[in-house]
């Protein structure tokens, strides 16, 4: 980088500019998934929108790219040669209960959103991990706890403020730059740095949620019943069934520590009595070891026990049209030979997810009834190969019912093929928008089509 230009840029930025050699560099480049090593040429911790604009302009003049992260949950590649722009400090939240809208800075987590919305009996379409950034989650689709009733979070994106790759500051909504607004609603990495979004909130006056845990011996019966049971559920109930290896940690309760278990995560827009009535077919099969199902407020939705600290994880996902009987044995087999594989789970989709959005988006509807996800913990170099073998074994078992696609929200290291996320028509839209607002490809997009 040209020294004079670099000096002027550093003087302009109100936040921090962190370069290799700085003792802060390692922590500033560390993503949530510790299996991804990021090697940018510099990190900017933006203090305000002016820092964002200055960084985009500097990168364009230097012929470099800008990669944007708030919490680092979406990191999937090395960022070689790019400038990493951290927006986690931009954490403003404003709720307008009369309009059922909230305006969010890019550093706002779902925990922040829900705390602001709960006093008004409202909720955003949060996911299972409260620490995830709400903006990045929404821009990439957002499959949440209330998805079967309310659809993807991206479809509730009503407006946005951003600095485009070509340096413009735009206010975007249905009427202003409608092509860009459409692309933002689930298209993944936008052709600019989003500095604020406005989302539509949903009413959540009555909510029952929690997690049921059984011993692994009950897996065949529970998974065998899951497909037919889910076909009877109303859209108001969203569930995920999984087989998990619980770590042997002091923080884990003794009855579960170190065990293989079956978990059912439940979120239901209804009273507890009705929730348990709907769950009765599964509860009659086996007695749970643990049951945290209770009425909850929108700011109390940390029900799945998702880890909050960075971890060396790697996941693989697949949209499925069905759950074939032939695959159930493989799906429930998390035995002693599973190696680094710690979780196999099936998310029930359908409902509002399979109905087209009212306005065009890159993912108008989710083409699949279930989402398979396999997750591993990788502490040693040899774990990478062992996990790949285990994941291939499981995903091969459902090949006949796999759509060949997954959701952009679940992109992981190795997921670089945009056709895995979007249709040909959606990719044409996204590529056209990128050429129009970021012709120099200043914004780094790891899954560009």
Automatic annotation (TrEMBL):
Residues 36-204 form the FAD-binding PCMH-type domain. The keyword Cell inner membrane does not apply. InterPro entries: FAD-bd_PCMH, FAD-bd_PCMH-like_sf, FAD-bd_PCMH_sub1, FAD-bd_PCMH_sub2, FAD-linked_Oxidoreductase, Oxid_FAD_bind_N, Oxy_OxRdtase_FAD_BS. One of its GO terms (molecular function) is FAD binding. Keywords: FAD, Flavoprotein, Oxidoreductase. Its cofactor is FAD. It comes from the Bacteria. Belongs to the oxygen-dependent FAD-linked oxidoreductase family. This is FAD-binding PCMH-type domain-containing protein.
């Amino acid at each position: 980088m040209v020294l004079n230009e670099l000096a002027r840029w550093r003087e302009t930025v109100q936040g921090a500019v962190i370069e290799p050699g700085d003792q802060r560099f390692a922590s500033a480049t560390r993503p949530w998934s510790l299996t991804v090593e990021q090697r940018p040429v510099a990190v900017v911790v933006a203090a305000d929108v002016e820092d964002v604009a200055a960084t985009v302009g500097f990168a364009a003049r230097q012929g470099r790219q800008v990669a944007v992260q708030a919490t680092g949950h979406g990191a999937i590649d090395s960022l070689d040669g790019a400038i990493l722009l951290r927006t986690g400090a931009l954490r403003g939240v404003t709720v307008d209960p009369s309009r059922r809208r909230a305006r969010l800075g890019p550093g706002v987590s779902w925990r922040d959103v829900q705390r602001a919305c709960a006093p008004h009996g409202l909720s955003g379409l949060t996911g299972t991990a409260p620490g995830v950034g709400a903006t990045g989650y929404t821009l990439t689709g957002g499959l949440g706890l209330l998805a079967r009733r309310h659809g993807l979070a991206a479809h509730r994106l009503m407006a946005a403020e951003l600095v485009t790759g070509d340096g413009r500051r735009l206010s975007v909504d249905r009427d202003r730059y409608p092509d860009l607004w459409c692309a933002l609603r689930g298209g993944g990495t936008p052709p600019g740095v989003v500095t604020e979004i406005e989302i539509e909130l949903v009413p959540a006056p009555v909510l029952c949620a929690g997690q049921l845990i059984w011993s692994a011996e009950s897996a065949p019966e529970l998974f065998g019943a899951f497909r037919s049971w889910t076909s009877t559920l109303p859209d108001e109930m969203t569930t995920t069934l999984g087989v998990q290896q619980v770590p042997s940690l002091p923080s884990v309760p003794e009855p579960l520590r170190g065990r293989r278990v079956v978990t059912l995560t439940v979120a239901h827009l209804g009273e507890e009595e009705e929730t348990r009535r709907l769950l009765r077919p599964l509860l009659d099969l086996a007695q749970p070891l643990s049951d945290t199902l209770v009425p909850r407020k929108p700011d109390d939705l940390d029900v799945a026990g998702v880890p909050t600290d960075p971890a060396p994880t790697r996941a693989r996902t697949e949209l499925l049209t069905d759950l074939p009987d032939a695959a159930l044995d493989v799906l429930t087999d998390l035995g002693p030979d599973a190696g680094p594989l710690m979780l196999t789970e099936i998310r029930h989709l359908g409902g509002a997810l399979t109905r087209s959005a009212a306005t065009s988006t890159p993912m108008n509807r989710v083409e699949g009834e279930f989402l398979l996800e396999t997750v591993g913990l990788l502490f040693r170099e040899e774990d990478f190969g062992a996990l790949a073998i285990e994941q291939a074994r499981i995903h091969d078992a459902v090949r006949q019912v796999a759509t060949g696609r997954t959701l952009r929200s679940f992109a992981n290291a190795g997921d670089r093929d945009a056709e895995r996320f979007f249709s040909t028509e959606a990719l044409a839209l996204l590529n056209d928008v990128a050429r129009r607002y970021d012709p120099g490809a200043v914004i780094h997009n790891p899954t560009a089509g």
